[in-house]
């Protein structure tokens, strides 16, 4: 596409200040400006968190997330709008967040923080705590997120298995299963970590059968997308002690509704879709946008193209 004016849509505000990104791109040979909904038609391209129907008139949309399930692929294709995403940048950030969940469960940090809120001095039972070396994590989705999780947890002594569609080997994973063998893959894991995108094939992939296949003392972590997990089935499994606990960054409805039982469960850690938040986020987005603007100027194909 021929880009003259690139808008940084103000919906990115919930992840980083739009002006930081716009300023860092000010030396590009295209005009870059922070825009609201009323200025979309002044641009030919946009960097955004959310989707707007008015984007269908543009030449190029760049999503600041890796997950692009909120964009209407068919409409974009029909209108000839290029969509690129931000996969490839979240490995270490999400990996460290997942390590912090596992360390919290193993070393009981979430329990101590809850007690601290009540000014309560209460030591855990002698056999509540454990350490990570020798445990196994099954990482479902072996892409950027999954590989980052594998690298950080691997450095803590966790044995890593994985699940992807083909079952082909991936560096950093001791064993990789094909998606049709998901129930076998999760059966031996102490932690099952969801790093999948939301697609027709992954919606409610984690259901009562999968939770039934997991060990009763295993933990579920979801940093992929909420609807990949059947949340009612997860709540049932937690209430029936069919799982030890869960750490959840993404939910079927976000923000998580106040009435959700997940808020009050002792062995559930809730984080508000921020597993990848970091002060460096806008810089990594800037690098991706810059690379594509330069590629377009040279007549080359886009990197991270989705549609
Ligand atoms: P990638 O495309 O790098 O990785 C996705 C992986 O999922 C691929 O390796 C693919 O492997 C695998 N996969 C896809 N479909 C299936 C399936 N049906 N069964 C088994 N495996 C499957 O994406 P990222 O790792 O960058 O991001 C993954 C998702 O994580 C994003 O789509 C987004 O929704 C979410 N995300 C969440 C964040 C947060 O803040 N919580 C931050 C960033 C991303 P193969 O092709 O081999 O099957």
Report the portion of residues in β strands: 15-25%
Number of helical elements: 9
Coarse shape: globular
Radius of gyration: 21 Å
Global structural class: alpha/beta
* Element pattern in H and E: EHEEEHEHHEHEEHEHEHEEH
Fraction of residues in helix: 25-40%
Average the pLDDT over all residues and give the rounded result.
Answer: 98
Distance between the ends: 13 Å
Biggest sheet, spatial arrangement of strands = 8-7-6-9-10-11-12
Question: Which characteristics define this entry?
Answer:
307 residues; five-stranded parallel beta sheet
Task: Please describe what this structure looks like.
With 307 residues, the chain is of the alpha/beta class. Helix content is 29%, strand content 17%. The chain has helices spanning 18-24, 73-79, 91-107, 109-117, 144-155, 182-187, 208-213, 231-239, 281-297; strands at 5-9, 31-35, 45-48, 60-63, 82-84, 136-140, 159-164, 175-178, 191-194, 219-222, 245-248, 268-270. It has a seven-stranded parallel sheet with strand order 8-7-6-9-10-11-12. It has a five-stranded parallel sheet with strand order 2-1-3-4-5, with helices on one face. Helix 1 (18-24) packs across helix 9 and helix 3 (91-107) packs across helix 5 (144-155). The longest helix has 17 residues, at 91-107. The mean pLDDT is 98. NADPH dihydro-nicotinamide-adenine-dinucleotide phosphate (NDP) binds at residues 66-67, 87, 90, 94, 141-146, 163-166, 179, 195-199, 201-202, 223-225, 249-250, 273, 275-276.
């Amino acid at each position: 596409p021929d880009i003259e004016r690139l808008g940084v849509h103000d919906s990115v505000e919930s992840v980083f200040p739009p002006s930081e990104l716009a300023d860092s791109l000010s030396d590009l040979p295209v005009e870059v400006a922070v825009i609201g909904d009323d200025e979309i038609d002044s641009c030919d391209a946009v960097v955004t968190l959310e989707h707007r129907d008015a984007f269908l008139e543009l030449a190029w949309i760049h999503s600041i997330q890796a997950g692009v399930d909120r964009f209407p692929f068919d409409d974009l294709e029909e209108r000839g709008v290029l969509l690129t995403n931000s996969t490839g940048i979240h490995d270490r950030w999400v990996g460290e967040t997942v390590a912090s969940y596992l360390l919290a469960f193993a070393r009981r940090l979430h329990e101590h923080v809850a007690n601290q809120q009540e000014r309560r001095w209460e030591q855990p039972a002698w056999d509540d705590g454990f350490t990570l070396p020798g445990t196994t994590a099954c990482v479902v989705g072996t892409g950027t997120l999954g590989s980052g999780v594998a690298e950080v947890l691997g450095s803590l002594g966790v044995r890593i298995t994985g699940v992807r569609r083909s079952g082909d080997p991936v560096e950093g994973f001791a064993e990789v299963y094909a998606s049709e063998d998901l129930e076998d893959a999760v059966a031996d894991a102490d932690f099952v970590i969801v790093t999948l995108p939301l697609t027709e094939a992954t919606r409610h992939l984690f259901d009562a059968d999968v939770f039934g296949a997991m060990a009763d003392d295993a933990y579920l972590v979801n940093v992929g997308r909420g609807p990949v997990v059947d949340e009612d089935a997860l709540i049932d499994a937690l209430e029936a002690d069919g799982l030890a606990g869960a750490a959840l960054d993404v939910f079927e409805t976000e923000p998580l509704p106040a009435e959700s039982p997940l808020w009050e469960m002792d062995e559930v850690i809730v984080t508000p879709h921020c597993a990848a938040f970091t002060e460096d986020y806008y810089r990594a987005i800037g690098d991706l946008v810059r690379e594509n603007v330069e590629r377009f100027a040279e007549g080359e194909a886009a990197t991270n193209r989705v549609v």
